[in-house]
Write a structure and sequence with these properties.
Length: about 130
Amino acid sequence: MAPMTEIQDIYARLVVEGADEALAFYRTAFDGEVLERFAGPDGRVQHAMIRLGSGKVAVKDAGDGDAAPVHGGVPVIMALYADDPDAVATRMIDGGAEVVFPVSDHEYGERAGRLRDPFGHLWMVAKHL
């Protein structure tokens, strides 16, 4: 078996309708601090990170294949950052995971892909470039 890659970070990504409204709610309700926010050309939030105490959660608008739970979508995507996301994806596939989006380089500075584990949970495996 190949050596494990180093896991560098892990957090939940919440898919919502109205990411900016959700961020405002989390700021008020949990005294959260928005650390980063990236929107697409249409203005919809593709990724935002908010610190809640010593933890953090990512928030994104529904779309790009992700439905919000109010529309029957998966409510959480686990984001796992590792030094070799390709190796993590291969190990997941070997264990029965299905590729949703293959691991590739993205214009926002990450190498990332999405997989569905054999139990139905979605995982984004990534590394910062």
